[in-house]
Design a protein that fits this description.
Elements: E1 10-14, H1 19-30, E2 34-39, H2 42-51, E3 58-63, H3 69-83, E4 88-91, H4 106-133, E5 137-142, H5 146-149, H6 154-173, E6 179-186, H7 197-200, H8 211-224, E7 228-231, H9 236-244, H10 246-260
Parallel strand pairs: 1-2, 1-4, 2-3, 4-5, 5-6, 6-7
The chain binds NADP nicotinamide-adenine-dinucleotide phosphate.
NADP nicotinamide-adenine-dinucleotide phosphate (NAP) binds next to helix 1 and helix 4.
Length: about 260
């Protein structure tokens, strides 16, 4: 089955109860995919399934916590047994985490790494064989510009640098299995978990985007299979600046970092 359209495909989306994951699930169901929507808040997923029940595709709610290996394995087993395939896995579940100052922040940093990085690893491990059996298959790992620039809460940046490295390595090693792996790096997007309150009212408000901006790019990546995408794309100029002119980059980055204030809110 080629990937020119998501219609008829089985797509697993983690973190589908709000924000980017919810917007992605909506888009995919509208174009005829079967979306297995994963998150802890089952009521949200069930309401979304009801709302989308008259669309071309179908949303199947599945409550699971990506920090629970047995729950992630059970999710993959359900998808295999019920649908017989997984044509795409979108690892999107994530939390922001707070500032990393010292010992009081350890649990928060470990949880952030557990959800964002290890949750992605758990899902990849659980679905690898089914993805290969369903090839050509796609993986989209929702990382972040913070996984390229090391800006904002340190535990969060560490988790996203991890997702970027994982994605880059797997985009090479899983290519021979006909599984394309993409790192999708959003900039500032207003969502429940990332309200961007420090930016939306100030001069940097124009830097802030909507969840559906990212969802549209995720669907595009499913069609094209490109290994990397930044949303919006102009954030890549900051990444280039970091490598080409580090002192200039640090001056700009420290201004953005100071504007962040207390990110534990
Ligand atoms: N918004 C931004 O500015 C931005 C920028 C770059 C990257 N990102 C990334 O985009 C992804 C989506 O974030 P968002 O902005 O859409 O935030 P969001 O609206 O808060 O969505 C986060 C999703 O992750 C789920 N989730 C959190 N912990 C989970 C767990 N332990 N197990 C399963 N699901 C879990 C949440 O569902 P439940 O609470 O129901 O479990 C929710 O559906 C994240 O990976 C985030 O790091 C966001």
């Amino acid at each position: 089955m080629s990937w020119t359209s998501p219609e008829g495909k089985v797509v697993v989306v983690t973190g589908a109860s709000s924000g980017i994951g919810e917007a992605t699930a909506r888009r995919l169901v509208r174009v005829g995919a079967t979306v297995v929507a994963v998150a802890r808040r089952d009521d949200r997923l069930t309401a979304l399934a009801d709302e989308l029940s008259s669309e071309r595709g179908r949303l199947v709610p599945h409550a699971a916590d990506v920090t629970d290996t047995a729950a992630v394995d059970a999710l993959a087993a359900r998808v295999r047994d019920e649908f017989g395939a997984c044509h795409a896995l979108i690892n999107n579940a994530g939390v922001g985490g707070g500032a990393f100052v010292g010992r009081d922040d350890l649990d928060d940093a470990l949880h952030t790494l557990d959800v964002n990085l290890l949750g992605t690893v758990r899902c990849l491990a659980a679905f690898a064989d089914l993805l290969e059996a369903s090839a050509p298959a796609r993986v989209v790992n929702v990382a972040s510009v913070a996984g390229k620039l090391g800006i904002g809460p340190a535990g969060y940046a560490a988790s996203k640098f991890g997702v970027v490295g994982l994605s880059e390595a797997l985009s090479l090693s899983w290519a021979s299995r006909d599984i394309t792996v993409c790192q999708l790096n959003p900039g500032f997007i207003v969502t429940e978990g990332f309200p961007q309150a420090h930016l939306t009212s100030g001069p940097m408000a124009r830097l802030v985007g909507e969840p559906d901006d990212v969802a549209a790019r995720i669907v595009e990546v499913l069609r094209t299979g490109v290994p990397e995408r930044t949303v919006p794309s102009w954030y890549r100029s900051f990444v280039a600046l970091r490598h080409l002119a580090p002192p200039v980059y640090r001056a700009v980055a420290s201004r953005i970092d100071r504007a962040g204030g207390d990110r534990s809110e």
